[in-house]
Specification:
alpha/beta; 10 helices; 11 strands; 40% helix
Length: 321
Amino acid sequence: MRAIAVLASGGDAPGMNACVRAVTRAALERDAVVWGVEDGFSGLVNQRIEQLTSRGVAGILQHGGCILGAGRCEPFFEARAREQSVTFLRERGVEGLVVIGGDGSLKGAQEVHKLGFPVVTVPGTIDNDMPGTDRSIGAYTAVDVAMEAIDRLRDTASAHHRAMIVEVMGRHSGYIAVMSGVASGAEMILTPERPIDLQGVFQEMAATELRGKRHFIIVLSEGAPWSGFELAQLINEADNPYEARYTTLGYVQRGGSPAALDRILATRMGVAAVDALWEGKSGVLVAWQQSHIVILPADQLSPRADPWSEQLDRAHEITTT
């Protein structure tokens, strides 16, 4: 290939810059021109690209966000916009595309693939909810940030004998909630996959009070039955031993310097994406399975097994009792 392009789509994730850097330098090593598409698929629709150089991607490995910009693009859902985008790439001499993003980005990439344009997707989302891969870029960092916040909030909860509700991101996935909750020793973790009724929450709070704990930490995934605000109100309206407060971490989980594991994962996946394009592959996902990089046909992906297995549940139950 004489030229490729790279874009980041959807929400930003720590490690996207590391992936852009790896894609750029791996392609330059093959004497190809590399174009960076600004603001995700929107950059294709509006024809905004910039040439990337080895010098230009120097020093971005440790930065969060994405130097190319990211985001969603409603116009790209229209067939005409997609056709014009592919025509634009071909007119610029681009022969392959690397898309970094979540499941929505994967769907967009597949639409490009259907138009006969080579495209490879790299999983980049803090939610870690993409099928086919055990890990996605940004998930490690998001869990670390959430864990640190929970550790800090526990100090205040203990001082004031409170139930502290920490609402974390995850959309329809409880990955961040479970991993950060187990890592910080939270008393309760509420996720979309493991629903619990309000009475169950009250009973666990009462049992924890009897054990002599001055705090009750609830890690709440944003896809759970209640928001942090709603659950705090319900707890305070009932006869419970702890006074509830809530904190929504929000976008703080997505920004900041990526953890070492995210930098390494992003670098390896970026290089693998370029290798896949040069091998003539398209419509595929670069995935991480059982500590190895694998290339999977995107149209054959099936949901992966829950990373929060029964074994992890049991570990949480034992360590927080």
